[in-house]
Specification:
Helix content is 40%, strand content 16%. The protein has 256 residues and is of the alpha/beta class. The protein folds into two domains: 189 residues, 2-enoyl-CoA Hydratase, Chain A, domain 1 (Alpha-Beta Complex), CATH 3.90.226; 48 residues. The strands form two sheets. The chain has a six-stranded mixed β-sheet with strand order 1-2-3-4-6-9, with helices on both faces. A three-stranded mixed β-sheet has the order 5-7-8. Strand 1 and strand 2 form a beta hairpin. Keywords: Lyase. Its EC number is 4.2.1.-. It is an enzyme of class 4 (lyase).
């Protein structure tokens, strides 16, 4: 891994590990990082051997959000197909776990909100400080956060612009694990590996259906879920899962 790579992808036994790699600026996201993240998300989505992904930051911080110095210099933000940070509008289709050390604020916090699970260090810091600069958190934070925690707490976070520690967020269920500093990646990888025993096409389908939970009314959900579920139910992995169950052995997933 080199500092010239703004974001780095490594693949480890079915788990894709994404590293935000601008530690000298606390992994704030410039055009290069956003473009790299979009390319990485595309690659993971298309790779049948990658079933789960973990995203973390190099150098002791997750991300402090958008690179405001780049913006202030007059550099125009690259318009990306998947939205800001290369994933805000179209997040990863496969399960994504955020491993948070240090600061996850602004767009860094919004990146956590695109993840399906969050493992945080006990001393991690979270927040949406955009209003303090007369900016607006347009990376999804203003509508994703109220879906994950009580609305009044989401209002407090967004409208005060304060930075909060893991203990503040822990009671609201937004954090799956709170662990010792320096161990979040290890803990997130352990969580990721616990998913690998399950069928990958079923994992992807389950994530997609659950992501629609706030969009569908219950009656339409019964109908809308089926085309998504059929991808898994008609897959080779479903056949393998049933054969493995009958033979009392561990399944060998193919992602097909």
């Amino acid at each position: 891994m080199t500092t010239e790579q703004a974001a780095v992808l490594e693949k480890k036994d079915g788990v894709a590990v994404i590293t935000l790699n601008r530690p000298e600026v606390k992994n704030c996201c410039n055009n290069a990082m956003a473009t790299a993240l979009q390319d990485i998300m595309d690659e993971i989505d298309e790779d049948r051997n990658c079933f789960v992904a973990v995203i973390h930051g190099a150098g002791g911080n997750f991300s402090t959000g958008a690179d405001l110095k780049e913006a202030a210099s007059g550099v125009k933000r690259t318009r990306l197909r998947r939205g800001g940070f290369g994933c805000f509008v179209h997040p990863l289709r496969k399960p994504l776990i955020a491993a948070v050390e240090g600061y996850a604020v602004g767009g860094g916090f919004e990146l956590c909100l695109t993840a399906d699970m969050v493992v945080a260090a006990a001393n991690a810091k979270f927040g949406l400080p955009e209003v303090r600069h007369n900016l607006v958190a347009v990376g999804g934070g203003l509508f994703r956060l109220p879906k994950k925690i009580p609305c009044n707490i989401a209002f407090e976070m967004a409208l005060t612009g304060k930075i909060y520690d893991a203990d503040f967020l822990r009671p609201y269920g937004i954090l799956n694990r709170v662990v010792e500093p320096g161990t979040t990646l290890e803990s997130a990888m352990e969580l990721a590996r616990s998913l690998l025993v399950n069928g990958p096409t079923a994992l992807a389908a389950s994530k997609r259906i659950m992501s629609k939970a706030f969009e569908w009314q219950e009656l339409e959900a019964w109908e809308n879920q089926m085309p998504i579920a059929q991808v898994a139910l008609n897959s080779k992995d479903r056949v393998e899962g049933l054969k493995a169950f009958a033979a009392k052995r561990a399944p060998v997933w193919s992602g097909e």
